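ok trying this again, last paste got cut off
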Amino acid sequence: MSINQAIELPVFFPNHSNRGEYCLHTLDIHRQIHFYLNRTKPFRKSDQLFLAFSGPRLGSAVAKVTLARWLKDCVTFIYTQRNISLPTTMKAHSIRSVATSAAFHARASLHDICAAATWATPHTFISRYKLDLASRGMVLWCSGMSFHESLPGIEVAGDSMCKE
């Protein structure tokens, strides 16, 4: 499997017909990436997706450790906002375990999970990643809370219609 493989993602309600569908459309990854690329275009110095947004490296690709820190900071923020203790073993790589396990429990095929994670066989997922999402520490990750509820005050791609 190639780490640079194409992954097709569905569009969330491009022709939304009610407020609920519109709010889900604001979470559409295609929409968010387009918004992000337009916002970073003036200072972009790299064709990598994630860029430094300040300092002398503004517009340059960020290092893997920076991405890992951002992921961990985001998860920590969500747990703090929900007044829930952060799992003591949580690391940036834990997100991969939770994401693939959540996909499995949502009935995604093992083929699709392996393709998205760039695993050649399901062995890695089954032996190392498949989590019991019913455990108390993992419920928040897959609880279905809304984006706006989990990140109060954060505007999604210029949207204000979905704020309560």
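PB: full thing came through this time. The helical segments are 19-25, 29-40, 64-81, 94-105, 110-117, 123-129, 136-139, 147-150.
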